[in-house]
Specification:
5-stranded antiparallel sheet, 5 helices, single chain, 266 residues, 9-stranded antiparallel sheet, alpha+beta
Length: 266
Amino acid sequence: MARVISGKTKEIVPMHVAGRGRVHTFDVITAGDGKKSDILTGKGALANAITCDVFERLEHHGVPLAFVARDGDQFITRLAEMLPFEIVVRNKSTGSALKRDTSLVDGAVNIPPVVEFFYKTTGGKIGEIQLPCDDPLVVLQDNGELWLYQPDEPPVGAPLHIIESPEGKPDYLEYLLSELKALALHVNMYLKLAWEQQGGDLWDFKIECGLVDGKIVVADVIDFDSWRVFVAGKPVSKQLYRDETPLDAVLRAMQLTAAMTKGFAI
């Protein structure tokens, strides 16, 4: 049987059914790549409910998912070969985008939505290469290379690192990012509408994707930690925690989110 995959906020436990795993989310909330962390009792069950509500909505609309079914306070997933990208869709400019481009106004509407890529790392490492940060910004070059930059600085000058397409496949990375962008915008179309129907305003969100039987699917989770959502002008997302909001208020916002995403069901 495959090994348990454990991270800061969740673990995937392989099942006896080949290619399946059960996702368990911990009662932990983190920020700053784990530099800030707290126990938030009940968070795991709430995060699971939100993710399942989102995935069931996307499944209804034919979005390819690793998700199989909810299972109490956990959910069952197909085990995907994860792709090393965090894909961010911004309906409105905010967050690190404001640091990379100081001409942007917080909350300004992006038409069309902006899609950004960040290269997933742990400990700032890509193989034996040590970077000064985790999850650098990805900028696709005309020659098909991916240049990596600090995520909170303008992407100019020499990159931190360069990733090239596999030998003999010069267009592979350009093709892959194009497919991931299309999938992320597909998710955005349904997720943004779902939030609007509940009176929410989806500013941005992130997804991660993987390969199942060679096909790109949305994997991991989409929950309270994954987006910036505003309801009646107030944030209901992990941004509250980043902004040092008291934990009980963060939990109440998460409970409100879970109550609202129940309405995502078709």
